[in-house]
């Protein structure tokens, strides 16, 4: 069946109504691809257990009439599907569950979705002519599904790395055999795909270095970004004391990504300068962990720190717009968190707890704010005091507009669409060359 449009099948386990940052990149691609002549169909999982659900993101799917195919799955998440959002476990338990999952399942705990997804994807490919398949990961099971569907249908496949596979700091390889099997799987899907998309330069360099058969032309960088439509909302003037600097962090804490450094720094600032109590307000928008709330109480920060819990995305953006300063924490240079680009979209100054690398370079070059080593408590104390001084003087930094506009998700989707067009051009050129040889 053909309808004169170009169609792309997107394979994405994580998709609304699931919340959190992992779903937004795929949603925004699906939202804006029709602007460039591509109609998306998203193949995803049906009702399942997860840490957060976001009705506003699901409404965005409906408003833009994105075609979605949902299937059941035999992965562990289905155990919690009727219990509402799953509470964030303590970090020790999260690590233990992650380890057990990586020990028992290859490439990940979502492998139980593969058979169901293949059946649904193959049926859809028979019903309609698709011009491309995009598989986004994690979970890496999505890549295996994409490769299998490509082999069955001969439709070009693009692998979209939201995070690294072998160098992901939150992925365990319990034994050398596990790592060998993962690398063999990655080599198989990388060799079998037509193009690769990554979120930043470090991942591209790693892939090309790891697999010499890849060229830089095979891997395209499509950065994380922000949707300007999300920021098109009124900003309510700050309530409460106007001399209080409001700091906001958006996102979930896990692994080495935690609020310890900024809370200890704030505690030390208050201890050294008691008159500054009441001058800082630190708000965390995201799933709460009991251990983080306990640390705030232990440090005597109850009146300075607020845990807002998970917020629907548009409400979270509202908090970004109403903040004076946005805080980012990341302990590695392999990931490219979407929240940074939303911070830039909010046009707000950033205090970034990040190591040397791509993200720090971006923040410095965009003049978006101040960077401190992730574990440097003293450095955070000094940064907070200096930023408060700039706040009082109304001289807080703001990201340069020409840099901000580079991360507009509508424009970034255009880069993906151009890549998909290139795949079609390659096919047409190959046919042309054959015809030229036979005439």
What's the architecture of the largest domain, going by CATH? 3-Layer(aba) Sandwich
CATH topology of the largest domain: Rossmann fold
Strand order of the largest sheet: 3-2-1-4-5-6-7
Which residue ranges are poorly predicted, with pLDDT under 50 across at least 5 consecutive positions? Answer: 427-439
CATH class annotation of the largest domain: Alpha Beta
CATH homologous superfamily classification of the largest domain: Glycogen Phosphorylase B
Largest sheet: 7 strands, parallel
Mean pLDDT: 90
3D shape: globular
- Going by helix content, strand content and strand pairing, the class is alpha/beta
**Total domain modules:** 2
Keywords:
439 residues; alpha/beta; Rossmann fold; 2 domains; six-stranded parallel β-sheet; 13 strands; globular
Could you explain the architecture of this structure?
- Helix content is 42%, strand content 15%.
- With 439 residues, it is an alpha/beta fold.
- The chain folds into 2 domains: 6-225 and 408-438, Rossmann fold, CATH 3.40.50.2000; 235-399, Glycogen Phosphorylase B (Rossmann fold), CATH 3.40.50.2000.
- The strands form 2 sheets. It has a 7-stranded parallel β-sheet with strand order 3-2-1-4-5-6-7, sandwiched between helices. A 6-stranded parallel β-sheet has the order 10-9-8-11-12-13, with helices on both faces.
- Helix 6 (176-192) links the parallel strand 5 and strand 6.
- Helix 1 (24-32) packs across helix 15.
- The longest helix has 30 residues, at 409-438.
- The protein is globular, with a radius of gyration of 23 Å.
